[in-house]
Predict the structure.
Amino acid sequence: MSRFELILASSSQTRKDLMDRLGLDYRCISPDIDESVQGENHADDLAKRLAYQKAHVIAEQHPNAIVIGSDQVAWREHAPNNFIGKPLTVENAIQQLQENSGKIVFFSTALSVQHLRSGFERTLVEHYQVKFRQLTLAEIERYIEIDQPLHCAGSFKCESLGISLFEKMVGDDQTTLMGLPMIQLCKILRQFGINVP
């Protein structure tokens, strides 16, 4: 039993599922922040600021808790300043996947862990990349209908049928691609004396 309260600053079901893997008591509070670009010209910078702000907003309300914030920005090779967002509509998802077809897409996933009472703050960015195979329009439309990835940057769910869209995946920690770098998170939680496992 941890002596710290853990708060995940997110409403994402995927991030909740990842946290559940640890078997720790935690609660979710959704941060209400402006996620628009504010002059950032690299995906790393945008992801870091958003992850930090998500955690900080909740940490200020709960200074005794360890607050975990995360954010992910997707981008295509050679274009880290051209951010790929959540499609939100089927039409946008079709367009994103057509643009991703045959290309390498990079993911900058930021993690921010804050405990205001002790003055602890650590914000970092992990990277992952996927190589899309050549996709036909019929495959794209069939995939979107089945997986409904309208709230996922890049228009796919790698933890689901999205895996069928790739030629290969490259990175140190697959959970980075899912939006919460769990290897780094576990390392930080152990610094607080939280047993994982």
About this structure: DSSP finds six helices and seven strands in the chain.
